[in-house]
Every structure is written in C-alpha cells, then in structure tokens.
Design brief:
Helix content: 25-40%
Structural class: alpha+beta
Number of helices: 3
Largest sheet: 5 strands, mixed
Order of helices and strands: EHHEEEEH
Distance between the termini: 18 Å
Number of strands: 5
Shape: globular
Oligomer: single chain
Length: 110
C-alpha cells in the first residue's frame, strides 16, 4: 500500500511535529494499522464520506507525547489502487471538526 500526503497536511504535520516530538513515530505506527485494516477497527475510525473511487475516513491518532487521543487525522483510501492519501491533521482541543471544504475539494479532484 502506498501513502501520500497533501501539501496542507505536510505543513500541518511539520508544525505539530515540532510541538509533539513523538508524532513522526506515531504516524508510522498509524500507517502500519491502516496497512492491515484500511477502514480501521473499532470506534476510533469513522467513514465520513464514501463514493465509488474512495472513502474519506476520520480517525484518532494516538500521540505518546500527549498521552491520549487528542489528535485527529483525515485520510482517503482508494480501494482500486490500494492508496492512502492523508488530507488533514488537527488537535481536537483547537478545532472540533474536520475541514469539510478541504474534503469536498479533494473529492472533486479525485
């Protein structure tokens, strides 16, 4: 399975990585989980939107530095090509919901 990042995601991730030092390793662990179960397992994963090309999934990203699940990650899983594209990462304390406009824009382009 291949993993890609949108430019906005990369910028957000870089900003959070400076603040939360364990984040790069936490993302690698998250990738291993998604590689096994792309739609996730349990209540920590939720399909936000789905069409014939891809499914947009919102998940909790466990950060060891935060000692909890306050980070959320939005990604697209393309079923045919077995590709995951990271769309957004945000801190639950700063922002209550995902950026719907970014998701709509992504779906329009995919």
């Amino acid at each position: 399975m291949s993993f890609n990042e949108l430019l906005k995601f990369s910028k957000e991730f870089k900003r959070f990585s400076k603040k939360y030092k364990s984040l790069p390793n936490d993302l690698e662990e998250f990738k291993r989980i998604v590689n096994v179960t792309p739609f996730g397992n349990g209540k920590h994963f939720n399909v936000v939107e789905k069409n014939e090309q891809c499914a947009i999934i919102k998940a909790r990203l466990f950060c060891r530095y935060l000692k909890g699940s306050s980070l959320r990650i939005i990604y697209a899983f393309h079923c045919q090509s077995c590709k995951v594209e990271f769309i957004e990462i945000y801190f639950k304390g700063d922002k209550t919901n995902e950026n719907r406009e970014r998701i709509k824009k992504y779906l329009k382009n995919c």
